[in-house]
Amino acid sequence: MRKINILSASLIMLVFASLNVGAQIKLGDIFKKVTEKQGTTTAATGTPSTFEIGQGIKEALQIGVSAGADRLSVKDGFLGNLAVKILMPPEAQKVEKTLRGIGLNKLCDNVIVSLNRAAEDAATEAKPIFISAIKQMTLTDATNILLGNKDAATEYFKRVTTAQLIQKFSPIVSTSLNKVNATRYYSDLTTQYNRLPLVKPVNTNLTEYVTQKAIDGLFIEVAKEELKIRDNLGSRSSTLLQKVFGYADKKKS
């Protein structure tokens, strides 16, 4: 009987010991999770260093310009996007209206499609130019962008990349205009129009026009991405972005 009691007591102690160990493990896990959450919250708040601001802005802009350039460099990237779709040059819009009025819709449509295809070809070369500009950005530039207007990054890109973009885009656009028959279509269009009595002949530098419109379209898309990360908390996909742009929110409030 004594042996049974000793055995029962031992078993009870063993069970309690096991429960205690299990409770400690669970409490340890809970404590660890709470600590990690607190650490993450702390890391995502507070005042970022100048270095963190620089890294955060570069990270945000790299995400933004990549998304914008990728959207435009695919088929219908320009043609299917009403915000950036390239229409007839201003001096040719009267031509388009006149020719559509006499049933030459297909000719006009061919010109518009081919102009947008040329811009889509050129957009594939934009990303490396933007990335290079981001890498060369100074800490002062980054701070000014972070605490500046909602289009501060876009304006920075316009200032430092426009000349490079024109230089890079022009030969691509010129080649693409020929490849997609835009030059021929436009020549056919203006020839048809210039044959009409009492009209003023139209002459457009298509390469220059499409190059500028392609660059304008890129900046529109970059501006969208910049606004998204400034205004949408869900777009701040890392602790660094949360900290840097959270700090900017507080400074502007």
Automatic annotation (TrEMBL):
It holds the Pfam family DUF4197. The keyword Signal applies. Keywords: Signal. InterPro entries: DUF4197. Residues 1-23 form the signal peptide. This is DUF4197 domain-containing protein. It comes from Pedobacter zeae.
